[in-house]
């Protein structure tokens, strides 16, 4: 019963946020840049990120670690896709308030956080499995 209530509330929140996003899109004077960016993100994901993640997960990781590693790679790829415009535009912007933070450093810190959480999940799984096995 709790699961269905959670799903309904999560779905309602998602619909509300989609409405906010749609209303913000209506204020954009030229949608061409938005459409190109979204199309590029889809192509980047489907042609590069997803196949690489599946290949790396298949080749490098065996057993129960494959799921968390693939998840971490997908999150890292999505973060990189979102950060690409800032990462590919070197130098300081003309207006210092446009990009006031150190985005490349923050992107790297976020990737380190993803790797750390993935390592903790794998360690917790390993600990749980070792506790379940009876001593031999």
Automatic annotation (TrEMBL):
Q: Which UniProt keywords apply?
A: Membrane, Transmembrane, Transmembrane helix
Q: Where are the transmembrane segments?
A: 35-61, 68-87, 107-124
Protein's recorded name: Uncharacterized protein
């Amino acid at each position: 019963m709790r699961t269905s209530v959670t799903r309904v509330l999560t779905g309602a929140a998602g619909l509300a946020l989609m409405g906010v996003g749609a209303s913000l899109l209506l204020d954009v004077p030229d949608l061409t840049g938005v459409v190109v960016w979204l199309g590029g993100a889809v192509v980047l994901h489907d042609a590069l990120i997803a196949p690489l993640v599946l290949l790396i997960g298949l080749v490098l990781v065996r057993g129960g670690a494959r799921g968390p590693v693939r998840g971490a790679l997908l999150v890292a790829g999505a973060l990189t896709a979102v950060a690409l415009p800032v990462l590919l535009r070197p130098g300081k912007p003309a207006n210092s308030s446009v990009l006031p933070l150190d985005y490349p450093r923050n992107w790297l810190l976020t990737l380190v956080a993803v790797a750390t959480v993935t390592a903790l999940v794998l360690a917790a799984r390993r600990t749980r499995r070792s506790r379940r096995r009876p001593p031999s």
